[in-house]
């Protein structure tokens, strides 16, 4: 593949992970030899808009709209979100380990374009290798017009929510704040702040080099570009894949060597995503609003879906920041009712349906909404399994932890 640094070029160029050896970070010299020099330009926001880039942190929000919200404000700040608290996701950590300079290019190019003189890369305290990788990369960069520093934030599912992240960076508890004010209005230390996922910033670094037309050379018209996916569960070769948006889930599973055994369902979009039946999975188009932060887990039919999912619901209830009543009490009750699906599905199902609709939109952040989507889509996709539990009670399949609730996905 050839590479050109010219904006508007339509030549093929490597994307985020093409040609990269996992396990060793590229030095600045190797990185620049691979991709060419970084182009800093205040017109980058227009290019990001033309590229149609949407955030890769989960909400799939239009990136240019966020950049415009802080551009031109007094002393804006940029925070690169590398918290990656979702246990089923490892793509941000993989990016930080393999190509930290690409992430830092995205940080610097974005900060420069919106007029921010300072930027922070926020990494979970437990992500030791990633912290070292970014720290080493930062030492190599001396000529950036933006002051970039690394900060650690507590591990935890909710820490990566943008206002929780900003609270953690101000030495407060890593709990979300009620919005408004939004971070772009009053963020870190009161300054207008933009929070972007590290993968989003890595795409910006490529758009800064090769332009919007190049970016749109992969993916579909509605869903341009590529995205990182953390693929886990019953597949032959799980791990981190870079896919073209708009690919089908069937294509992605095939790239991973296919399923190791018949599947009961696939969780798409991680613990804020939704379950898809084994029959619907192959044809599902992976667009940003479905892919979320990119975690995909294939659950085999040999597992007890109810018991496996119950562990996750219990885990998510425990990760509530405990400051909004409907979230902390509601999710605990949902966790208990979900566990009872194993023995008395009909009664607990009715309670779950009522309670998930009651917690939606009732928190300072979208944590309860995410759990509600996980539970409701489970009840639909695992209908046959629930009917079996209603007839025979516990199925007795061992709980193997197909859905990770701690540790690292990659
Ligand atoms: C409970 C919760 C946890 C989140 N965790 C993360 C995270 O670990 N990393 C991340 O980039 N975004 C996370 N987000 C989304 C952020 O709030 C924010 O939308 C994102 O960092 C913006 O970046 P993007 O526009 O580039 O996607 C989380 C959101 C919620 C509600
Ligand atoms: S909704 Fe839940 S996780 Fe979000 S701020 Fe409220 S208590 Fe915390």
The helix-strand sequence is HHHEHHEHEHEHEEHEEHEHHHHH
Give the low-pLDDT segments. 1-13
Termini Cα gap: 28 Å
| Biggest sheet layout | 5 strands, mixed
What would the principal axes of the Cα set say about the shape?
Answer: globular
Strand arrangement across the biggest beta sheet: 6-5-9-7-8
Tally of DSSP β-strands: 9
Strand content: 5-15%
Q: DSSP helix count?
A: 15
Radius of gyration equals 21 Å
Structural class: alpha/beta
Mean pLDDT across all residues, rounded? 93
Q: Helical amount among residues, as a percent range?
A: 40-55%
* Bound chemical compounds: flavin mononucleotide, iron/sulfur cluster
Tell me what you see in this structure.
The protein has 410 residues and is an alpha/beta fold. It contains 15 helices and 9 strands. The protein has helices at residues 28-35, 44-51, 63-70, 91-98, 100-114, 128-140, 162-169, 198-215, 249-255, 288-291, 305-318, 325-339, 345-359, 367-381, 383-392, and strands spanning 77-82, 118-124, 147-153, 193-197, 226-233, 239-244, 263-268, 274-277, 295-300. Strands 6-5-9-7-8 form a 5-stranded mixed β-sheet. A hairpin with a 5-residue loop joins strand 5 and strand 6. Mean pLDDT is 93; it is low at 1-13. The chain binds flavin mononucleotide (FMN) and iron/sulfur cluster. Flavin mononucleotide is lined by residues 55-59, 61, 66, 81, 83-85, 158, 160-162, 195-197, 200, 365-367.
